[in-house]
Amino acid sequence: MAAIEAWKMKGELILSCSCTVFCPCVISLGEHPPTEGHCQTWGGIKVDKGNYGDVDLSGINIALMIEIPSLMSRGNWTVGAYIDEKADAYQMRALTKILSGRAKGTTFLFNILVGKFIGVYQEKVEYEIDGDIRRLKVPKLIDGEIQPITGAKKGDPVVIKNTRYWISDEVVVAQANKSRFRAFGRNWDFKGRSAELCQIDWSGP
Q1: Is the C or the N end of the chain the one with fewer CB within 10 Å?
Q2: Which residues, at least 6 apart from 166, have a Cβ–Cβ distance to it below 8 Å?
Q3: Phi and psi at residue 93, to the nearest 5°
Q4: Tell me, what's the pLDDT at 33?
Q5: CA 204, CA 58: separation in Å to the nearest integer?
Q6: Domain span holding position 130
Q7: Is residue 30 domain-resident?
Q8: Which of 202, 147, 194, 205 is nearest to 27 (CA)?
């Protein structure tokens, strides 16, 4: 088996899921059931700076699909991913190891909880920042837009801080303005449902 290289990924992540606002999994760490009894979610990652060994991962966009049948902590997740078409073969291999949990570190949770890893495919993945709005597009597959929910202080979003959530210890509470997902045999529309925005700083092994 090939040695696991040291890796890092810094950037931003968004998620749009089937829960009503706000997804209880963030605070309960998967011990509270999703609001619909199951969780269906798509996500986007914008890698601002990253590497797997000598392989530079900076500037790559990623789209994810995660389906969880009951409590998040019980596992048996189904996961699939789309990696930006501009990624080369070395970047694809590195990101597949990271996203499957085989590279250990922050994403090792996937190796424990994912029962079915559908695979990683290449498509055009667009991650757009427009003020406080975030958009993710994979042509004909994902068309999403999320926006933070404003708190008591005008212009500032509701933020959950100091969490033990594996993705990030600070999560911006958001809602989907648009959330269409048609991929891997799924046909979802989560407009008006829960969403989140996180700055990520992942590493391994």
Answers
A1: N
A2: 106, 109
A3: -65, -45
A4: 87
A5: 16
A6: 7-204
A7: yes
A8: 194
Q: Is residue 150 part of a domain?
A: yes
Cis peptide before 110 (omega within 30 of 0): no
How many distinct structural domains can be found in the chain? 1
**Rounded to whole angstroms, how far apart are CA atoms 179 and 204?**
31
Whether 146 and 131 have beta carbons less than 8 Å apart is answered as: no
- Using pLDDT thresholds of 50, 70 and 90, give the confidence band for residue 195: very high
The pLDDT-based confidence of 73 (bands split at 50, 70, 90) is: confident
Q: Are 172 and 157 in contact (CB under 8 A)?
A: yes
What's the rounded Cα separation, in Å, for the pair 147 and 22? 13
Site of tokens 């969403």: 195
What residues contact 149, with CB distance under 8 A and at least 6 apart? Answer: 21, 157, 158, 173, 174, 175
Q: Which residue is it, tokens 């998620």?
A: 15
Residue with tokens 């590493």: 203
Say how far apart CA 162 and CA 7 lie, in whole Å. Answer: 24
Q: Check if the beta carbon of residue 167 is closer than 8 Å to that of residue 12.
A: no
Single-letter residue type at 60: I
